[in-house]
């Protein structure tokens, strides 16, 4: 509609300008034609003739009328144009081609100039008439004025006819402009409407439709460019969606917790790892204080560049390290990003390392103190002691040295296991039943001394296990000896072995003191003792089960403990058998 309206306004404006120009041109032509006719007739010679006639004629007015009537054709006298003769002193009509002028003729500016003795030939474009007035022997108020007056009726009729033609042309032109403008606008707006529909579909996420190119013009180029833009936009959105999916996957499954807050402190994003670390889920409108109610920050925790703040935070029996950094989009600060690192295990390892150093120091200090004390006594009072006392003291020193040797040996074994330096022959295979049987036989004498019966419920042969015989025997010896040491007089130790799911299972069950439920989860920790006094009394280092666990796991197996305080303990070892492919390799 705007395009049609513009075309109509242009059409009207053009016709109005052309019509105005034509009417002005016709008016100018009529004025120029009138003046040229007057100049052609009223030449100086003709005026001189009129003056001579006026001077010699008995009736000058009629004589002047006769001469002008003779030139009526040249003057163009008709029903619209008349000539006249006036009395110069009064301006009264005396004669002319139309006697009705005697009552209707009014004095014009040109007549007034002629009455003053000057030729009046000024024509006003917007006046009601054209006229010229020529003075004939006008002196001291005497003489005559001859002139021609045109009422402009013919010019007005011509202009009106021309105006009517222009109005009809304008109406026809407007009709044509409306029709042509409508079709022209359709040729322009139809592709634009299709582009609009496609833009709406693109805004809704549908990139399947392509706008049709109707012509190789500017709109066609726009349509083609729009289609290309749609393809590029689709590719970019697909790329963005892929990156967003990657980020969502990373954000969801990353081990570190991430929480994003807006400038008002509300949660924008939080991943499952953060909720797991914090021990609860958060509602959509949760705020910073709901997530970190007890987190205290100060400037001392800020890094040197001032880009983030680091703080330690304990929650849900976990130790967390929280990094807070501003979240910026462009140059604007849009919130805060909190990254949570779970350092519980690291802190536990640090504590274990400190405890391990303290335990080693304690375990070494006790025998060293005893050795030093008994050695000093021997050195100071060797001659005063009898042979039995000296032998007893030396036996104690030897026992403490042996205890330190076992401790150092166990520590070296753990060190090799920790650093993967335990060497095992890859082609070596062992029979766990044979190891258990030989271990039971070797420990039977010590068991009898303590009143403990060791019984084997073992098959003749089990599937072979790939591993180090000495290390696996060390494990079995450690478990069986513990079952004997921490048993009661009259107690029993039973060894069972079987195969299931291509695994060899060895269980050692005793009827000893048992392990309290709260201690079962820690018995594989280094230097951990359920009853420290009894363990030292029995000569244990507190590393046996830790070493056993490391060796079993090194061979790809598992070790577990089931115990009830006062009723006994069962330790189970599970190790994988050698497969047929491995046995033929």
In short:
The protein has 585 residues and is of the alpha+beta class. It has helices at 2-41, 44-56, 60-70, 72-75, 101-104, 109-115, 153-203, 218-253, 272-278, 288-291, 344-381, 387-418, 432-449, 469-485, 517-520, 532-538, 544-554, 580-584; strands at 81-87, 93-96, 130-139, 142-150, 257-261, 267-270, 309-315, 318-329, 332-342, 429-430, 453-457, 465-466, 492-500, 503-510, 558-564, 568-576.
List keywords for this structure.
5-stranded mixed beta sheet, 16 strands, about 575 residues, about 20% strand, 18 helices, alpha+beta
Characterization of the model:
This protein is an alpha+beta fold and 585 residues long. Helices cover 53% and strands 19% of the residues. The protein is built from 18 helices and 16 strands. The strands form 4 sheets. A 5-stranded antiparallel beta sheet has the order 6-5-9-8-7. Strands 11-13-14-16-15 form a 5-stranded mixed beta sheet, with helices on one face. Strand 13 and strand 14 form a beta hairpin. The protein is rod-shaped, with a radius of gyration of 64 Å. About 1% of the residues have low confidence.
């Amino acid at each position: 509609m705007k395009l049609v309206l513009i075309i109509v306004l242009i059409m009207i404006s053009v016709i109005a300008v052309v019509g105005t120009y034509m009417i002005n041109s016709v008016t100018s032509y009529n004025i120029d034609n009138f003046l040229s006719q007057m100049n052609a007739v009223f030449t100086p010679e003709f005026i001189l003739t009129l003056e001579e006639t006026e001077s010699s004629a008995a009736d000058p007015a009629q004589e002047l009328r006769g001469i002008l009537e003779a030139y009526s054709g040249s003057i163009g006298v008709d029903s619209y144009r008349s000539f006249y003769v006036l009395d110069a002193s009064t301006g009264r009509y005396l004669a002319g081609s139309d006697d009705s002028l005697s009552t209707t003729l009014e004095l014009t500016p040109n007549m007034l100039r002629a009455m003053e003795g000057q030729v009046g030939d000024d024509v006003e474009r917007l006046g009601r008439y054209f006229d010229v007035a020529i003075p004939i022997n006008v002196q001291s108020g005497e003489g005559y004025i001859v002139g021609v007056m045109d009422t402009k009726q013919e010019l007005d009729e011509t202009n009106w006819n021309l105006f009517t033609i222009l109005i009809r042309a304008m109406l026809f032109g407007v009709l044509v402009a409306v029709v042509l403008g409508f079709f022209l606008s359709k040729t322009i707006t139809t592709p634009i409407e299709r582009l609009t529909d496609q833009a709406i579909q693109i805004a809704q996420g549908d990139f399947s439709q392509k706008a049709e190119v109707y012509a190789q013009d500017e709109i066609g180029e726009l349509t083609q460019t729009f289609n290309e833009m749609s393809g590029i936009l689709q590719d970019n959105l697909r790329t963005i969606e892929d990156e967003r999916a990657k980020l969502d996957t990373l954000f969801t499954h990353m081990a570190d917790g991430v929480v994003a807050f807006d400038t008002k402190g509300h949660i924008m994003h939080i991943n499952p790892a953060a909720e797991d670390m914090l021990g609860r889920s958060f509602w959509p409108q949760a705020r910073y204080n709901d997530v970190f109610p007890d987190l205290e920050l100060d400037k001392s925790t800020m890094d040197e560049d001032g880009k983030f703040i680091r703080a330690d935070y304990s929650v849900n029996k976990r130790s967390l390290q929280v990094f807070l950094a501003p979240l910026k989009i462009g140059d604007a600060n849009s919130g805060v990003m909190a990254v949570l690192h779970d350092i519980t295990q690291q802190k536990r390892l640090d504590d274990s390392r400190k405890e391990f150093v303290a335990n080693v120091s304690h375990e070494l200090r006790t025998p060293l103190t005893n050795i030093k004390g008994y050695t000093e006594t021997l050195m100071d009072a060797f001659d005063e002691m009898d042979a039995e006392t000296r032998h007893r003291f030396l036996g104690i020193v030897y026992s403490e040295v042996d205890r330190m040797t076992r401790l150092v040996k166990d520590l070296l074994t753990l060190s090799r296991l920790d650093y993967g330096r335990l060497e095992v022959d890859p082609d070596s295979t062992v029979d766990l039943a044979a190891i258990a049987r030989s271990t039971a036989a070797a420990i039977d004498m010590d068991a009898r001394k303590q009143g403990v019966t060791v019984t084997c419920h073992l098959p003749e042969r089990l599937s072979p296990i790939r591993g180090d015989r000495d290390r696996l025997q060390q494990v079995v010896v450690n478990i069986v000896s513990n079952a004997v040491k921490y048993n009661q007089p009259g107690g029993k130790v039973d060894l069972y072995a079987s195969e299931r799911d291509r695994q060899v299972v060895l269980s050692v069950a005793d009827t000893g003191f048992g392990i309290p439920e709260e201690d079962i989860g820690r018995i594989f920790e280094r230097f951990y003792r359920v009853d420290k006094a009894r363990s030292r009394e029995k000569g244990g280092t507190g590393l046996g089960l830790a070493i056993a666990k490391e060796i079993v796991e090194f061979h790809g197996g598992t070790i577990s403990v089931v115990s009830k305080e006062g009723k006994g303990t069962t330790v189970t070892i599970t190790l994988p058998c050698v497969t047929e492919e491995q046995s033929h390799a």
